[in-house]
Structure formats: structure tokens, C-alpha cells
Amino acid sequence: MTEINFHHGAADPLAHACRLLTKAYQRGARVAVTASSSERLAQLDVMLWTYDPLAFVPHARLRAGAAPAERLAPTPIWLLDRAADAPHHEVLVNLGPEVPAGFESFERLFEIVGKDDEERRAGRQRWRYFESRGYEIRPHEVRG
């Protein structure tokens, strides 16, 4: 069963995602990232190159329905419109307001929930969804 982790209270969910993805890369994890919109993934793409001038987080962007380029297959982090398009199923990070379709095919899911009311409301709905289906949820309060 997929391990569910909720990182809640993030002042800047994209900056938190950058820190989380940096750690994941340093530990050798393969990660798929989904979001509520292509624009949010584009913002994350830029932030992964700029948020820390000393960090290198190799990643690729895959739009819905496109096949990953063979030369990019070894890339450890994928920014995806749909989790179902992931080239691997180790870790999924969700930056969107809805439960990502196909999350159950991943070993681990990280939900990142911001501080604003709309994100918190959507996060509570996702929490209830997972809880109602018998998933054990590991909460992590984001500080700072």
C-alpha cells in the first residue's frame, strides 16, 4: 500500500517542493511531480534551476500524452501533467488540489499543502479521501 505523507503549513509550497526534491535527488530517489496546472509546473521548473545557486537538481518536463525522450529516461525527477505518465513509480509529489489519479501505483506519495485557506481546504479533502480508504497518513508540519 502506498505510504502517504502530508507536508502541511508550507508558506511557499514551491520552495518547499524544491527542498524536498533536492533531498530526494541527493538520496538517489526517482520522483514524479504533479500540480494543478501547467503554469505551476513551469514555475517549479524555473525554481529548481534558480532557488539555490549551489544546488543541481536534474529534472525533465513531460506534458500530458507525450512519451519521454529516450535520452531523458535516466532523469531522476519528472514534472508531469498526469501521474499516470510517470516513467517510474517510486515517489510522487502532489502540488495540486486533487488526489492525483494513479497515486496508488507509487511506493510513496507526498502531499504539499500551503497555508492559504483554499489549499488547506483541498488538503483536508484529500486527507479524508485517503483516510476513508484505509491509508495510514504521516503528517509533517512545515516550519518556516
Q: How much of the sequence is in beta strands?
A: 25-35%
The CATH top-level class label: Alpha Beta
Q: Would you identify the regions where 5 or more consecutive residues have pLDDT less than 50? A: none
Question: Helix/strand-derived class?
Answer: alpha/beta
Distance between the ends: 31 Å
Individual helix count: 3
- Percent of residues in helices comes to 25-40%
Architecture (CATH level 2) name: 3-Layer(aba) Sandwich
Compute the number of structural domains: 1
Number of strands: 7
C-alpha-based Rg, rounded:
14 Å
The CATH fourth-level homologous superfamily: DNA polymerase III subunit chi
Largest sheet: 7 strands, parallel
Strand order in the sheet with the most strands: 3-4-2-5-6-1-7
CATH-assigned fold name:
Rossmann fold
User: Mean pLDDT score, rounded?
Assistant: 94
- The coarse silhouette is globular
Order of H and E elements = EHEHEEEEHE
Protein name: DNA polymerase III, chi subunit
EC number: 2.7.7.7
GO molecular function: DNA binding; DNA-directed DNA polymerase activity
Enzyme class: transferase
Strands, helices and their partners?
Layout: E1 3-10, H1 13-26, E2 31-34, H2 38-50, E3 59-62, E4 77-80, E5 91-94, E6 108-114, H3 117-132, E7 137-141
Parallel strand pairs: 1-6, 1-7, 2-4, 2-5, 3-4, 5-6
Helix pairs in contact: 1-2
Overview of the structural elements:
The structure is a single chain. The protein has 144 residues and is an alpha/beta fold. The protein has a single domain (7-66, 74-141), classed as Rossmann fold. The protein contains 3 helices and 7 strands. The chain has helices at residues 13-26, 38-50, 117-132; strands at 3-10, 31-34, 59-62, 77-80, 91-94, 108-114, 137-141.
